[in-house]
Specification:
Elements lengths: L9 H5 L9 H21 L1 H19 L8 H19 L4 H16 L12
Helix pairs in contact: 2-3, 2-4, 3-4, 3-5
């Protein structure tokens, strides 16, 4: 698939700002579904999978910033998603121009991360 072609990701609509309120279990379920969707796409088209991974990382913090994280469960699931998706993004055979766009989007997401869910990305 050409990087210019947009995919209709099922998870995109579910990860809008404050999508889950304070409830952790629906957020955990949706995160796992999104990771599965991205991994499945990456098996068929690694560049599409990379794009999905970047999109997920952009949307995750604003979507869950109000979720009760006192148990640590949501943080663990987010860290697991990051651990799974970063290699998908890194393995995507994207051209330098596209990879630069992805990096710019990463930086914007990290800078906008009010609750530090994705703060470990720059490392």
């Amino acid at each position: 698939m050409s990087p210019d072609i947009k995919n209709t990701w099922a998870f995109r609509a579910r990860f809008r700002r404050h999508a889950f309120g304070w409830r952790g279990q629906p957020a955990i379920k949706r995160i796992k579904e999104a990771v599965s969707e991205i991994k499945k796409a990456a098996r068929k088209d690694p560049i599409l999978g990379g794009e999905g991974g970047v999109l997920f990382l952009e949307k995750i913090s604003p979507a869950i910033e109000q979720v009760d994280s006192s148990s640590g469960a949501i943080g663990g699931v987010v860290n697991g998603a990051i651990d799974t998706l970063v290699p998908v993004i890194a393995r995507a055979p994207a051209e330098d121009k596209l990879r630069d766009k992805w990096l710019e989007r990463f930086w914007q997401a990290v800078e906008a991360d009010d609750i530090p869910y994705i703060e470990m990305l720059p490392e």
